[in-house]
Design brief:
With 377 residues, the chain is an alpha+beta fold. The chain has 12 helices and 16 strands. It is 39% helix and 25% strand.
């Protein structure tokens, strides 16, 4: 499998890579050409989500680093950043890396898998393809958003049914990131959309600017911000609104046994710190508490009622495919990921195959059904 070559390319010991494969911390994807390795965990400085394509030449696409989240913003800004910060929009979608592999534009998920749906959607992007042909050492990192995607459905006027907005350009082997303003100039030169940059501020004045931006974004139903060192020499930080926390919780409590307790706990804790930092009075705290409580209780109660009536918990996604073969490839991909889906309906329109995919949430359905039947927790 050319393990020695892969290990040398990544700068890690071959025995360590071999052991990771045996433990399945690294996975070989054989049903793709070229075959590729995925790092399912951080290993010896190689990030989770790193993919190594075993083609005629080895092609490395490093995993996207985890972004720290701010709970209490002012002291974090003071401690973490040097002098200035760039404030960009954090969009509500899913993380995608675009890279050229043996001349083909591929879209990789955060976990490192080549997603056939996203690849098909973005493979016709001539601007991105032209960019990567002229800058093959780079990876385009961005957010796939819109109402017709199979992961995170959220409406953005500027995205239409499906959109892609870049938030980073990184060297695909070293993972170093391009400075913010240089990145945006280069993207605009190629006509590639990027996330909104609200401004570059001195860190002493940044907190109040960020609070204002986040409040405005919350009112518009948008997610929050990512705060970056303009030179990208320091790790970025994300900061979101109370409305975003509530939205995340409302979604997760529709399927309460699908998510780890840390997912719920961290979002609730954020609310407390933000309320204190924003110096909220009795009225604001009451609104926050009501929003938080509703987001937890109401969707969970609705799901329990559905299961009690004998229903299976599901969620629907409206997607478009160019052909039946493209649809089947995506269904095969999902099932290999352990995702249970059925086609609820489909129709051919305007040269596209329009499909409603229904994802079955068996874990939450089964656990709720078990409790309703008399089992304790």
């Amino acid at each position: 499998m050319r393990l020695g070559e892969v290990a040398e390319k990544l700068g890690i010991e071959e025995w360590r890579l071999k052991g990771a494969l045996e433990r399945q911390s690294v996975q070989l994807i054989e049903n793709f050409r070229p075959r590729y390795l995925i790092f399912k965990k951080d290993i010896a400085g190689v990030e989770r989500g790193t993919a190594v394509f075993l083609g005629n030449e080895l092609t490395v696409v490093r995993g996207f680093p985890k972004i720290m989240r701010a709970f209490y913003l002012v002291p974090l800004l003071r401690k973490h950043f040097a002098s200035r910060v760039a404030v960009e929009e954090k969009m509500n979608g899913y993380n995608v890396r675009l890279a050229l592999v043996e001349g083909r534009l591929l879209a990789l998920t955060r976990g490192g898998f080549v997603c056939p749906y996203t690849t098909a959607k973005l493979s016709g992007d001539r601007n991105a393809e032209s960019f990567l042909k002229e800058h093959p050492e780079l990876v385009i990192c961005g957010e796939a958003v819109g109402e017709k995607n199979p992961y995170v459905v959220h409406r953005y006027e500027e995205a239409g049914d499906f959109g892609f907005f870049v938030f980073d350009l990184r060297n695909r082997e070293s993972n170093s990131a391009m400075p913010v303003l240089e990145r945006n100039r280069l993207l605009e030169e190629y006509g590639i959309k990027h996330v909104r940059l609200f401004g570059v501020y001195r860190k002493e004045e940044a907190a109040q600017k960020i609070f204002e931006v986040v409040r405005r974004l919350a009112g518009e139903g948008r997610e929050g911000v990512v705060i970056k060192d303009p030179e990208m020499k320091l790790p970025p930080v994300k900061y979101t609104s109370s409305q975003t926390n509530a939205s995340d919780l409302a979604y997760a409590f529709r399927f309460p046994y699908e998510y780890g307790r840390e997912f719920f706990f961290s979002r609730i804790i954020r609310e407390g710190f933000q309320a204190v930092e924003w110096k909220e009075g009795e009225k604001e705290l009451e609104e926050r508490a009501l929003r938080l409580g509703k987001s937890i209780l109401l969707p969970m109660v609705e799901s329990i009622k559905r299961v009690k009536k004998g229903e299976v918990l599901t969620e629907d996604y409206e997607l478009e495919f160019a052909s039946e073969a493209e649809l089947e490839e995506f269904l095969t991909y999902l099932r290999r990921q352990g995702v249970s889906v059925v086609i609820e309906e489909s129709e051919r329109s305007d040269g596209h195959l329009k499909v409603v995919l229904r994802r079955l949430r068996h874990s939450s359905t089964d656990r709720i059904r078990s409790v309703l039947s008399g089992r304790g927790e």
